[in-house]
Amino acid sequence: MTDVLLQMTDIQKSFPGVHALDNACLEVKKGEVHGLVGENGAGKSTLMKILTGIYKRDSGSIKFRGKEIHVNNTRESQQLGIGIIHQEINLMPHLTVAENIFIGKEPMKGLFLDKKKANDDAKKMLNALNIDIDPAIPTGQLTVAKQQMVEIVKALSYDSELLVMDEPTSSLTENEIEELFKIIRNLKARGHGIIYISHRLDELPIITDRVTVMRDGQYVGTVETAKVTKSEIISMMVGRTIYEEPKVKSTVPADAPIVLEARHLCGNNVKDVSFCLHKGEILGFAGLIGAGRTETMRALFGADPLDSGEIIVNAEPITVKSPNDAISHGIGYLSEDRKGFGLAIGLAVRDNSVMANLDAFLKGPFTNDPKIDRTTIDYVEKINIKTPSVSQLVVNLSGGNQQKIVVAKWLIRNSDVLIFDEPTRGIDVGAKQEIYKLMNELVAEGKSIIMISSELPELLRMSDRIIVMCEGCITGEMNIEDATQEKIMTLATSKM
Amino acid sequence: PAVAADTPYIAMISKGFQHKFWQTVQAGAQAAAEKYGVKITFDGPPSESDISVQVDMLNAAMANNPAALCLAALDTESVTEQLNTCKEKGIPVIGFDSGVPNAPEGSIISTASTDNEAAGALAADQMAGIEKVMAAITGATKDAPIVLSVISQDATSASITGRTTGFVNRMYEICNEKQPGLVAVTGHDKWKKASESGDVAIEILVSIAASTSVTDCQTAAQAVIQRGPVGIFCTNSGSVDGMLSATADGSDLDREKGRYKDLVVIGFDSGATLLNAVRNQWFHGAVTQDPYMIGFYAVELAVKTLNGEKVDPIVDTGCQYYTYQNMDDPAIAALLYE
Amino acid sequence: MEKNKKFNFTKILAPIVLVLLYLFFSIFGRNFFSDDYLINILDGSYYIGFMAIGVTFVIITGGIDLSLGTTMMCAALLGGAAFNIWHWPMIWCLLLVVFVATAIGFLNGVLVAYLNLPPFIATLGTQMMGMGFGAILTRVQTMRYPTFGTPEGWFKNFFYKTTAGFPVGIFWLFGFFLIALILLSKTKFGRYTFAIGSNREAARLSGIKINPWLTGVYTFCGFCCGLAGIFYAAVYTSIIPSTGNGMELLGIAGVVIGGTSMAGGTGTLVGTLIGVYIMSVLKQGLMSMGLQSHWQTFFTGVVVIGAVLLDQYRLKQGAKVKK
Amino acid sequence: MEKNKKFNFTKILAPIVLVLLYLFFSIFGRNFFSDDYLINILDGSYYIGFMAIGVTFVIITGGIDLSLGTTMMCAALLGGAAFNIWHWPMIWCLLLVVFVATAIGFLNGVLVAYLNLPPFIATLGTQMMGMGFGAILTRVQTMRYPTFGTPEGWFKNFFYKTTAGFPVGIFWLFGFFLIALILLSKTKFGRYTFAIGSNREAARLSGIKINPWLTGVYTFCGFCCGLAGIFYAAVYTSIIPSTGNGMELLGIAGVVIGGTSMAGGTGTLVGTLIGVYIMSVLKQGLMSMGLQSHWQTFFTGVVVIGAVLLDQYRLKQGAKVKK
Ligand SMILES: Nc1ncnc2c1ncn2[C@@H]1O[C@H](COP(=O)(O)OP(=O)(O)OP(=O)(O)O)[C@@H](O)[C@H]1O
Ligand SMILES: Nc1ncnc2c1ncn2[C@@H]1O[C@H](COP(=O)(O)OP(=O)(O)OP(=O)(O)O)[C@@H](O)[C@H]1O
Ligand SMILES: [Mg+2]
Ligand SMILES: [Mg+2]
């Protein structure tokens, strides 16, 4: 029993209206990488936040190194030797890398801060992980991936005996993930315990020893990674078995007309991008983080300025100076950052659903509220949005349902071309399936979709054609019949 | 709950509350109230530009069903309607301090006040009576013009404009007699007057502060001092305070070693700092009113009116000029407050 | 859910506070429970009411307007100048008041929307500019509006009190309030006001042209200040140059007491109106108790903090989730 | 990169504007280039300077303090009451001034940090409360501090001007400025001030106890207001009750002109000091040109907007990234 580092038993936690954790359990041994998986909202992050003192548990016991602990805040958990890398990036963008790493434990020279020592030490730590970042620049100027690396360095700097990693790889590239795994293995070798949360189930066999699965706040079971398959884990997560069925052949007829064509688009991190989209097609965009896919689509959509290039919709050149221009030509854009750019989460479902098309819901100078409600209800039913009513605030819905509301918004606007940017980011397996189904229905109805995704299996499953980008340029294009993960990764990493 | 019906209630609304001047007025009013057995309340807005606050106070006072009202209006027009209402309701209104100039016929029974134009003129007379000022006036030429200045905290309140006008007019008169056609009034449109000949030997500069706050009065004073005037008249406590803080509490005006030792300054009212400045001869002197009697008369007039007695429409409560020499005379000292 | 809670609070708790305050002063104040005081309560809050209605829209967009008071005064001053100096007919003077205030609101809108200045700073700047501008143009002279019974005195009878003494201003304020209510809840303008305040970027990516709408909101707020200016002039007659700063805080306090969050995205006009009347009752009530005016200031501060603390307490969970 | 640009701007452009303004008025103003005006420029900005230094910290945390001016006045009033009414020795009165202001700052801190009120609202409330409180306690009497040459006159010689007329206040202001500079850039307090403003939640999750530190920042700001109160009293002698509101905007304007962003996370004290002097030079300069004082108000507004527009323009890219 001495090798048990952490033992969490029967943890209960309620938020008003939500029973987030119900008898959750977790046991981590020394020198173990312990995977923690479950659908969105299963309570993984909440459990970790309870462990690190951010939330208070309602009941249950936590034993760390055999001793019952009660931590009230992050500092206390740090002092006990429990560190955490949060799911969301938690850096202070105006502070430098070194300042962020040493926040709360600044090297001091008497009463004053020792900036030089901080910078030197930070440099050493970054070098040790092969990360090339200047410790003296503000983190706000780093890419998301580099910020993630800084987070990791910061968490490691505490030299915690138990380190929680809540989706650390969600915005890292393959190479960076490889570096991270090296670090994890190193920590493990030194006897540290690691809790590793991820939605990328493929990572589990590579890095974890055991996996605990949670569902709806409850403990489902703990298994040894080597002894289970991915689909077994998935069925534990969702309570049913899901079969992935990659697309083998494009469903688009060869003579389908071109609905959208981009010619030589140039903008911020967009370098001479040209492509076309056929009616009824799902066009996948692959690439590593920072490949410029989002930028391309934002420029196309008028969200960011376009330096040069032509956009042709249904054989007619159009000028796009603002999203409004793009929308009026039947283009809709689902942002990768739902809360930031996609939804007014403080407003009701019905307010969001008609936001892009309010003009169609006016009666004279006034809004036609009954019609808004009717239409919204129609779409809630049609695409199966789970919400108690259309006056529910969006903030209270789960991620997948929020995503569907964005879809409903563009459908209500009657957009023919839909740009889905990471439509399944941060939503759970079940909800993902629903989104896929919805996308297939939409193309069957004659709509056309551009889908950006960082998950290759997803792209291979959904797309009719795949375009690969790297550093702002298109580096390749292939039909689904010819596409393989290897081919895409090669193109995604080949600089022109 | 209503006050016992037998003690008449008189509401007094002043123009301010913060300055010692008003506290002395209140003391006088209180004394009269005790003498005549009436109940009074005394309130005023936080600053002398808060017209809306005063109007609200007046409305509240009227809603309190007073037997009589005593009022020192910040601005006549803004209370005209209330005065008419009082007249209809038969609530007698007594003006005090600057009163309610140009009030509608018959709405003000009587006013206990200083004749402010006379007070301003008195300051002008006193200033011109000082030898070196007179010498400067007679000696001024259009090539070496001199400046005489008046600093006021605002151009709105009747008492302050009255004093300003009194001073400017009398000074203009005096100077124009000595230097015909060479006197101009500058600084503010209300008093602006070009010289008759087009050349200027004596400039009477009217400076109005940006707001009634001490900081703005000080800035106004600083700007005037920079013009190197021969004499300055400050028309009320606010501008006196501004002047004092622009001159290190007046010590810069020290007759022997001050930076502006030749500058003649005349103040208005009293108060510890001003008295100190006068006593040290930093200020040549100051005009004082009789705030205690203003308050006392106001209540007395109200009581008399309530008793059906006939009262004079104006009771001049008088003003005096004091210098370091006479400020301890009992007759004067009684008018001064710390 | 959260919104409903909020509605409940604004719709029930704030009115209860208002009624309790009124009862309290009716018992302890001198003659407070009377027509006279009721009329004072109404009269003293027209101008604050108009400002508060306007700034409610601005605050819902997540902005702020610090120029409310000086805009009102600057506009009223210019209208007064038109009347006193240029001798325009009254009606034109009133149109000028509204026009000037609307123009300043428009300037605020352009600064905030097109030039992307933080609202606090943009309106701090126009606050000072407006205050200076009015004084410069009128040469720092007090401007006076016609009084009852003078040739143009209809102005007062029309906006303030009938000759019989009936406070007609209340009809104007409530009439305008209803229009604003419809504007906020039943029109595109209102919806976009909420949308911008809730998530500006999401609104933009939904094809809403943020800049013109946001400019519109500030312009509307300026327009409200213009109306406030007319009613201020009708009630108080004289307009002193270089004043008006500080009054914006009364307007904003009304909105805040009414339960509208400074973070934007939510807010109710009913709450605002109740907030304004809570302040007005407090002010008149303290006067009826013979407490001097600084007690009002003190207690208004207490009420502002108290109201928001209460709101905070009820919305605790909602706030957490939002964060 | 962005930060560097900002530093360059604050370190070079703002001083250039200051120098240009000074030169401009030296040429066109009457007697502007003189000791007298220089001293006026310094004297008139002590109290604004202290307030601005304090509120710079608050603004860096992403907050705001609207109670600056009234806190200063309330504290100065109470100190004056101690001197005038209770006849305390001067030194105790001054300690009382600092104590009262610090206490109000602490209250602000508690409201903002522990009770989680939006800073705008919390400090709006304490603004009103402070204004009322000072007036209530002193029974609305103007409080006067000792003048030069009176028994306790050392106070003025010590804080304002030596008997020889040298403006010693400047040493105090600059001395305190240096201390604040070290506090902001060299200590944990300063570091956490930036951290909280940059990302409060991240700072919290990094184990920083936000509440005490944030309370500390507001308390420090209150302390600065206390110092401002002493210098206000030293320069202006008389403290009038129920005043001070509006002055907070001067302090805030100084910070804003100095290039500190209202969004929090960045800011420089050097910029703040330059901002304060830009306002002071403008004020005195316009006076020296014989322009009436409301021109100052107008131009201060223009400068506030102009400064931020310029800053905006240079930081355009940075802002985009932040968004
Ligand atoms: N502060 C909160 N207030 C109310 N409900 C909360 C709060 N935090 C979490 N929840 C709810 O608790 C449940 C568990 O959430 P949690 O974030 O732990 O899930 P998760 O497993 O980490 O999901 P994901 O994979 O999306 O990160 C969800 O239903 C969520 O909505
Ligand atoms: N204003 C900016 N300044 C500096 N770098 C920027 C700026 N905007 C974006 N970038 C960088 O440009 C790159 C492209 O970003 P982005 O994440 O949008 O690409 P992407 O291909 O859409 O990736 P994904 O959608 O998978 O995250 C990133 O490295 C990002 O950090
Ligand atoms: Mg999570
Ligand atoms: Mg992207």
From TrEMBL, chain A:
Cellular component terms per the entry's GO annotation: plasma membrane
Q: Where in the cell is it found?
A: Cell membrane
**SMART domains listed in its UniProt record:** AAA (SM00382)
Q: Does the keyword Oxidoreductase apply?
A: no
Which InterPro entries does UniProt cross-reference here?
AAA+_ATPase, ABC_carbohydrate_import_ATPase, ABC_transporter-like_ATP-bd, ABC_transporter-like_CS, P-loop_NTPase
Q: Which CDD domains match?
A: ABC_Carb_Monos_I, ABC_Carb_Monos_II
Q: How does it sit in the membrane?
A: Peripheral membrane protein
What keywords appear on the UniProt entry? ATP-binding, Cell membrane, Membrane, Nucleotide-binding, Repeat, Sugar transport, Translocase, Transport
Q: What SUPFAM superfamilies does this protein's entry cite?
A: P-loop containing nucleoside triphosphate hydrolases (SSF52540)
Where the protein is mainly located, per its record?
A: membrane
Q: What is this protein called?
A: Monosaccharide ABC transporter ATP-binding protein, CUT2 family
Q: What would be one Pfam family of this protein?
A: ABC_tran
Q: GO molecular-function annotation terms? A: ATP binding; ATP hydrolysis activity
- Output the superkingdom of the source species: Bacteria
This protein's species is Flexilinea flocculi
Please list the residue ranges annotated as the ABC transporter domain.
6-241, 254-496
UniProtKB/TrEMBL annotation, chains C, D:
Membrane topology field:
Multi-pass membrane protein
Transmembrane spans: 12-33, 45-78, 90-114, 120-137, 158-184, 217-237, 249-282, 294-313
From the Swiss-Prot or TrEMBL record, what is one GO molecular function term? transmembrane transporter activity
- Database matches in CDD domains: TM_PBP1_transp_AraH_like (cd06579)
Give an example GO cellular component term for this record.
plasma membrane
Q: Which UniProt keywords apply?
A: Cell membrane, Membrane, Transmembrane, Transmembrane helix
Report the domain of life of the source organism: Bacteria
Task: Write down the Pfam families for this protein, in alphabetical order.
Answer: BPD_transp_2
Entry's localization field: Cell membrane
InterPro entries, per the entry? ABC_transp_permease
Query: Matching PANTHER family, A to Z?
Result: ABC TRANSPORTER PERMEASE PROTEIN YPHD-RELATED-RELATED (PTHR32196), RIBOSE IMPORT PERMEASE PROTEIN RBSC (PTHR32196:SF72)
The protein here is known as Monosaccharide ABC transporter membrane protein, CUT2 family
